[in-house]
Amino acid sequence: MEIKQMKYFVEVVRNGGMTQASEHLYIAQSTISKNIKSIENEFDITLFDRRKKHIILTDIGQIFYDKCVEALAVLDDLSLEMGDVTNLERGHIRIGISAIMNVRLFTESLNQFHSQYPNVTYEVIEGGGKAVEFYLNNDEIDVGITTLPVDEDIYHAVPLYKEKLLLIVDKNSELAQQSSIYLGDLKDESFIMFHDDYYLKDQIIESCRKVGFHPKTVAKMSQITFIENMIRDGIGVSILPESIVNILNDGVVGIEISGADVAWNLGVIWKKESYMNHVTHEWINFLKDLK
């Protein structure tokens, strides 16, 4: 049975006859009659009591009519909802973000998108770059914001911004008096690092290795506030992106680093060959334009 056959049948009942239905639908009466007969043959039922002068539904015809009305209503609702989604009247985006990024920059861009599409909803999960990739691989998020580069065989990526990495020290320390420092001169310092699932940690260790030492790690964590407080308490130093340093309080200072890979790239990534809903696709395009 086709949808149009249900529609023809419902219109016959609502208009009180095939002649009236054909006029309402601008379709030949013979077409309507043929389609209704096709329904009866398919289900081996009789929809109308044709002995009567007016349209009278049989018992099975009444049940069939009620079900057709329900089914057509569901299809109408589905059509409206699909229209809402494709027109971004509604939708849901699952996003994984790095704790290292400037959250204010992220929320500002999200606010701009939300002001245009206020019925779109969001789910945000925080984690390191390796965690973000894990969430993508397990379909727990639709898109991630993380450190670039990533494996191009697995993920699509769009760069968002690039910034410097700075050494962060207590403002009262001897190091705070310097405007720039060679990374190799930090071989005796204690480092406060991010957890192992953050690519920034790998980048810092590799940069230190290139200048001849392995950083002595005194603590691993993922909360910027904890890192900041430990630096202020003189427990160690850390290396963070400049945008993060700019939102820390004045108890710590950032110092430029030489002799190291001091560039940090952030981008939006999503898994290749995976389904992406319409609203997430539009959000990525929005980020590209905003960038």
UniProtKB/TrEMBL annotation:
Organism domain of life: Bacteria
Keyword presence, Transcription regulation: yes
CDD domains: PBP2_CidR
Keyword set, alphabetical order: DNA-binding, Transcription, Transcription regulation
SUPFAM superfamilies in alphabetical order: Periplasmic binding protein-like II, Winged helix' DNA-binding domain
GO terms for MF: DNA binding; DNA-binding transcription factor activity
Pfam family, one: LysR_substrate
Domain called HTH lysR-type: residue spans: 1-58
GO (cellular component) term, any one: cytosol
Protein family: Belongs to the LysR transcriptional regulatory family.
Protein name as catalogued: LysR family transcriptional regulator
Lineage summary: Bacteria, Bacillati, Bacillota, Bacilli, Bacillales
